[in-house]
Amino acid sequence: MLFWRFMQPWLIAIICIAAFIALLFALAAFTLKVAFGSRCDKDPNLYYRLPEEFSLKFEPVKVMQGKLALNGFIYTSGNVDKVDNLVIFCHGLGAGHIAYTTEIAYFCNQGYPVLALDIRGCNYSEGKNIGGMYEGVNCVKAAIDFARADSRFKSSRIILVGHSWGGYSVLCASAERKVDKVVAISAPLTPVKTIYNGAAKIISKPFALVLSPFWYILNFFKFGVKGNLNAATCAKNCEAEVLLIHGDKDNIVPLKFSAYANASGNNIKKYMATGKSHNPYASMRAQQLLIELNEKLAHAIKPDEQTKKYLKEFDFIAATEQDSDVMQSICKFLKFA
Q1: Phi and psi at residue 260, in whole multiples of 5°?
Q2: What is the pLDDT of residue 14?
Q3: pLDDT, tens digit, for every residue of 168-206?
Q4: Which residues pair with 72 in a beta bridge?
């Protein structure tokens, strides 16, 4: 008590402000740990379509990122001895690239070999956690470097395709590596906007807004200036042609926080999937099934008997049905003159 009695009021104010800022830093660090501090593996309660279902050939690939191995596969429906165009696919947050087997098969059936690595801390790849959004960019860059070192792809055109976190990753990677075309589906704008959108639903918008500058600083400390890359700016600055696809009903990456709404440039084309949510490449029927599935699992930490019965009867094949207009638009964009 005597200590506080003899302290100057201004010094007490500084100590209180410093303590408050330290508390906000701690809360920001905690929310980042919740978002990125664990692994993302496939859900054992769900069914993921297998490449064998589409008669795909698949070759295992291992790429070292520091001491961690990023694992994945090269998928093809034919011969890969000489390749004119290679698709590098980057997945969104979740089970890794196996959640996109239908989309990978589509590109393979159009004649494109597909290289798909899992991001650090996701499914096939090593890592105790996913670390942060920029790790997705690191994964795409590692895939590009691998392709350039492989004699089969050394002279191939490189096409980047990504969804959600993967969409952000391919846009940012295209500003750091030379590629030929980029397709970003449901891509968020920045890490801070992405964290804000998720956190605001839990801790309120005002509190999430207060924490936003602290998320920015923490990302800077971890990844440097690259920790807060703006996907729209990267899309504009890259040398490749870019196709941005977004659903106008997306509540996971709302339009105002998307690369789609904020990007502009002569190299950028856009496709608005009307009536679609976060998976615009899925048919309306599949989209509804996915929304229903996510709602069913959102409140079930451990599935009860009713949920298990629901999952057993769930039509996972129908839930992967594609929207032919969206997929054909992507393939039309990928054609080279």
Answers
A1: -55, -50
A2: 81
A3: 999 999 999 999 999 999 999 999 999 999 999 999 999
A4: 61, 117
- Left if phi > 0, otherwise alpha if psi is -120 to 50, otherwise beta: which for 319? alpha
pTM exceeds 0.85 for this model: yes
Q: Which residues pair with 150 in a beta bridge?
A: none
Helix axes 205-223 and 191-203, enclosed angle (nearest 10): 140
Q: Residue 51 has which token pair?
A: 């490449």
* First CA to last CA distance, the chain: 79
Token couple for 280: 């615009």
- The whole-angstrom separation of Cα 266 and Cα 262 is 14
- What is 191-202 written as a DSSP string? HHHHHHHHHHHH
The DSSP code for 88 is: E
Q: Which H or E run includes 5?
A: helix 2-5
Spatial distance between the Cα atoms of 153 and 80, rounded to a whole number of angstroms:
9
Tens-place pLDDT, residues 58-78? 999 999 998 999 999 999 997
279, with CB counted inside 10 A (0-12, 13-18, 19+), is buried
Q: Count Cβ neighbours within 10 Å for each residue of 150-173 and write b for 16 or more, e otherwise.
A: beebeebbbbbbbbbbbbbbbbbb
Two structure tokens written together for 213: 């500058």
274's CB contacts (< 8 A; 6+ apart) are 248
What is the Rg, in whole angstroms, of the alpha carbon atoms belonging to the chain? 22
Q: Max Cα separation, the chain? A: 82
